[in-house]
Amino acid sequence: MAQDTTVPKLNFEYWLDKAIEWGQTTTLESQKNVCLHLPQLQEFLHQVYETLKYMDSLVGIQQFPLTGQLLGRLSWNPFVIGYDESQKTLMWCLCCLYSSEPQNPVELKANSWIRSLLCHFLSSSKWESNEAETGTFLSTLGYTSANYHSHVVKKMVSSLLTEVRGYWFNGLKVQGRVSASCVNAVSRFCLPLITLPDLTPFLETLLLYHGGASKEILSLELLEAVNEAFLKKKISLTESAILSLWLRHLPSLEKATVYLLDQLVSIQLNSLEEVAGVIKKSLLPQAASHPVIFRIVNEIFKNTLLETNGTPEVMTIIQVFTQLFLQAHQNKNKQHNFPLKAYFPYHHQPLVTALFRCPYELPTTHWPQHLKHISDMLKALVEDTNISSPANLFEIWFLVACFGEWLDIAAEQLLKAAVEPDALLWLLAFYYSPQNENQQRTQTIVEAQAVYNNLMTFFSCTVLSVKDLEAAVHSVTGIEKCCNQHLITHLLTNFLLFSSGGHMIAQEFIYHIAETTDTSKEICSLLIRTAYRMDHNGEENQRTVTLLNEILQKLMLKV
After folding, report:
1. CA-based radius of gyration for the chain
2. Fewer Cβ in 10 A, N or C end of the chain?
3. pLDDT for 104-129, tens place per residue?
4. Are 328 and 288 in contact (CB under 8 A)?
C-alpha cells in the first residue's frame, strides 16, 4: 500500500477509516501499513492534543464528535500502542476528554471508559494473553513480554513527568503548564496503578504539584487511595510528598493519626524503642514540623486522651511522639524557621520555650534550676484567677503532660539530687491533680511531702526491709487515705530504683504496689520510660538497667 503524502489537519474521518481498516488484525500487510503511517499518525495525534488541551472536555467532544471512537479504536490496536510516542500521546488526548466534574450519566460513562483504557495500556496481561499475536512485534522492538510492561510504565511515567513539569514534549516546548482539568484527569487515571513501583516518581510529582490553582486540582479519590496505600506500607513516598499530601487533604492526615494510635494501642508496649520505631515510620513527627500538621495531630491526641480517660498507654504514646517531634523540629527548623508560637499560639510562650528545651541540651546540674523555673511559671499561670477556668487548666495541663520527660526527671531529681523539694513537688502535684477540687492539690502536696521526707531518711541505707519501707509509705496501701496514690507510687518506684538499698526489695515491693493499688499499667509505663531514657543517655549503671528489665518482664505478665 502506498504511503499517503498529505493528510488534512485534524481529519478525523481519514484516520477513523484507517483505524477501522487496520482493526486488530495481525497480518503482515496490516503490520506494514500501520508502521508506514505511524509517523503521520503521531503528528496528527499531537495536533489533536494541542487543540484539545485548552478546551473544556465537553466542548472538545461536541466540536470533534469522532474523537472518542477514533481514540478508542487506536488504543486497542497493539501495533499503534506498541510505539511509545503514540501510546503516550493517545493517553494525553484521552485526558483532555475526561470530565473532572461529570454532570450527567453520559460523562460518567465516558470517564469510566477512559479509565479502563489506561488500565489496558499498562496491563501486561493483555500482552500475555495475545502472546502468539504480539510476540513477533515485541521481539522486533527488542523486548520480551515479561519486560515490556515495565518498559511501558517507565516511559509513561517519564512522559507524565515531562508534561506536568511543563518542560519538553516530543522535542517541542509546551507553552504553559498543563491545565488543572488535565492534571485532575491524570490523577484519576493513576488510581488503579498507585502501587506500581515505577509510578512512584510521578505520584510524588503530582503530590508536590499545585499549578497555581485556587482549589485542589488532584482527584480526592487519588489522595485518599495514596494515603491508604502509604499507611498499609504498599508504597513508599518521600517525606516532602507525604507532607504535601496531608497539607492538601486534611482528612488523610486525620486518618493517618488515628491509624497510628490504633496501631500503638493494639500492641503491648514492651519497650519505647518499638513505639518510637512505629511512630518514626509513620512520618507524622517529621511532618509535624509544619505547624498546621502539628496542631491537628496534637488536637487528635488530646481528644483521644479525653476519650480514654487518660490511660497511661495513650499518655506515653503522646509523650514519645512529642520527643520525636522535637528531634525533627530541631533538624528542620533551619529550613522552615517556624516560631514556637506557630505550634502553641494560645499558650504562655516563656513556658513553651522552657518545656521545648531538650533535657540533654543542659548539664544535669542545671536540671533542678530549669525545673524550678518551669514550676514557678506554671504556678503563676494556674493561680491567675483570670485564666483558671477548667478548660484553660486542662489546656495548660495537656501542654505540660506532652513534655512528660521533664516530669519524670523532676521525680528522679527529688530523690537523686540535692534539691529544694517544694517547687518540684508542686510541679508533680499539678500534673497528678490539675483541677485542685476541694483543695485536692494542696492535700496531695502535704502527703507527698511527708512520704518524700520518710523516703529520704532511708535513701542511704544499704539494707532495707519491706516492712520498714511499707510503714514509711503506708498511704500507698490505703487507697481511701491517699489523696493521690499515683504521685506517691511514682516517688516510691524511683526510690526503689535509685536508692542504695532499694534494689534488694524492688521487685517484691513493686509487685505489691501494683496488686494493692491496681496501678500495674501505670507502673509499667513509668518503668518503660525510665528504661528508654537510661538506654539513650547512659546515665545509670548496668545493674539498674538489668533490674528494670527483670521487673518489666514479670510485671508485663500481670498487666
Report:
1. 33
2. N
3. 887 788 878 877 776 666 553 343 44
4. yes
